[in-house]
């Protein structure tokens, strides 16, 4: 598992230092402060390849470069439960590459990376590796499997025209016809990742979507008694179906490869997910992280699981409260202050509800209200501080507050109580 990451002169801050939790790691912060960047760096540390280096169709996952003119370094450490191995890489401007110790990545975990744009990357210790001959890296097999969004659904082709992965559409259809273990796993994972028992993602019958598309198309049985082709499902459903598919595909392929090599299966799985709440309804956001942790443990029953995810969602933060453990989980928050980006490993504290998370250090909002209502309440609060406010202003603000806020709103209740006690309102 990835244990430690130390960056100097690379990324939005002069330096960043992270001590990862063994199980769950959360990244919060405003847009542009480096959440996706840190996930890219974590992937590179585990695999030694940038996603876009392997698949140039990607718009995300590009190689990191120094932020300034000085020396740039990436240091990290990986652990296998009993031992830890440190690694250091320096950027060579002449070679336009990160240089370091040659050889196979020390990571022994199965790594999955779900990027925010729908791309996926997978590194399998049984199928992706390097060998070293005379001190030179020789890439005997693919360094990783990297899919741009279209390839997730339609499959991944090698340069020689052979299929590296059939893609979600063909594999799902094939698994359904075979009615073997992969399809049972897929059904189980889809059910676990569903937002509720009333809205379960249940595979329907195969269909055809046109006269010209001869593929057997998987469907999802909708609550309104229709089977909808997976490619016509909502963006949120497609996101979760892709997560489910790659969890099953990656684990099944790893098991097959380990069997052929007559080697033991890995006992470690690392899942990186950028914007885990992407396209998901709030009801789904409340369940996705606990569900993923459950699913990963269920697929790999004997494996250690490490999840790294970036989020903008207060519902995601609220959803992890029941099981977050500061001994094995970590929360990293990126802030912008004084003209600089800083990364803080924050102590996780419970806020009870999503609205309270909005005003926490994770999101730094003054309130969960609209900006217009927030400004109105600030004006009203300022009036309450005056010794003898203009009563016409009090009436105008009161009228605006009554129109804007719910009758049950706490501020409105307190405002009217104070104004009446001071005789400003009848």
Automatic annotation (TrEMBL):
Highest taxon of source: Bacteria
Descriptive protein name: AAA family ATPase
InterPro entries, A to Z: ATPase_AAA_core, P-loop_NTPase
Pfam families with a match to the protein in the record: AAA_21 (PF13304)
GO molecular function: ATP binding; ATP hydrolysis activity
Annotated ATPase AAA-type core domain residues: 24-318
Organism: Sulfidibacter corallicola
Gene Ontology biological-process annotations: DNA synthesis involved in DNA repair; double-strand break repair
Signal peptide: none
